[in-house]
User: Fold this.
Amino acid sequence: MDQIVISGGARLNGVIPISGAKNSALKLMAAALLSDEPLTLTNMPHLADTRFMAGLMETLGVRIEWVKEASVASFHAPEIASTIAPYDLVRKMRASFNVLGPLLARVGHATVSLPGGCAIGARPVNLHLKAFEAMGADIHIERGYVKAAALRGLKGAEISFPFVSVGATEHAMLAATLADGVTVLSNAAQEPEIGDLAACLNAMGADVRGAGTATIEIHGKTRLGGATHHVIADRIEAGTYAIAAAAAGGKVFLKGARADDLQALIGFLTDAGATVATSVEGIEVARGPGRLSPVSFDTAPHPGFPTDLQAQAMALLTTADGDSVIRETIFENRFMHAPELARLGADISVRGAEAQVRGVPTLFGAPVMATDLRASVSLVIAGLMAEGVTRIARVYHLDRGFERLEAKLAACGGQVKRTKDGAPEPATEDAA
Ligand code: UD1
Assistant:
């Protein structure tokens, strides 16, 4: 099993290129199922999660050509060979559940395993299923599988989500592109990945309006064609390195990062005392000597502070000059990094959805264990700040969402290495 070994204390100076967004790419790949013509994605991130999704797509009959060095992948589903997504595949990565809607829309039926819970919470899919029912699908749950059928096709519907769900918004959008009539999604998620998916679907010939606002209107079409689409920059990867730069000190330019997608984080970093400069080419984050200021925040749907950057922000605040309070409002169990950060000397108490972080002057390197994708990278950030050596076990979590993490940090002077301890990789467990 791989470990990440970090010698803390080095400042970060240089340029970090930001990869295509994992969370966008996974849904864009699912969009390829809607058409019998090829969908080509450029700026395609090569990650454990996207490789995994590609494996599932192949079992459904999608032909894939992926030039990893060029970050270009083409997905072609001239025919759907199977409409079944088995438990073993969906359990490992929730986003694979998103093949249900496109299969249902294209061939009228699909059998997809329920994803189940994951490390950060129960994460039900009731909103996804309600949306398909509203569009006329028959949904049955049998032995852990969702069996969905709409043999005479999906119908446009008015769907009002009781609370914001990124996955349900994207899933309903995908299916509605081939529904008969107009679908209106109210209280829709406004994450940048939704806009990216809408742009891709429209390039394929769909008619999606209002993505990026709370109301999305989809005028169904009888068929979609092929397209070439550039995956947006990963705002979570960019935000992670922005926090890393503020944590380690120095000056880092995040090439390709989109400031518009990261306003809440930029406000947070500025309040903490880092300097942030933005341009169309990217975001520059700098921090001088001295301790940062404490900052309290709540996670919230976009444009609020992203839950996927909460763990990284907590790592930064562990050495702030005072107390911060973090409230996690999206997932019920997303503070598993707190006890690991405490192993490095952080002073954090968690009560329900609230964590109080009392800043300490210094963290000290220690062996720690990654618990999920974003938590694991918070330990990397803490390791960069700590005195001495931090060893992070279970880094397969990192590989799900961060492309060439060690290389990107090392290029800026970070003392970050990957080692192998010979133990086998366990079966992965999903988390955001
Ligand atoms: C996506 C992101 C994840 C991010 C999250 C919130 C991907 C692959 N993952 O996850 O990285 O942390 O958005 O920004 O894009 N819920 C229900 N019923 C449903 C659907 C969701 O109760 O049918 C709940 C969830 O358990 C959670 C909340 O709604 O508490 C928000 O979840 P959602 O926005 O759907 O997250 P995901 O799309 O799974």
Notes: The two ends are 21 Å apart (CA to CA). The mean pLDDT is 94. DSSP finds 14 helices and 24 strands in the chain. Residues 235-248 form the longest helix (14 residues).
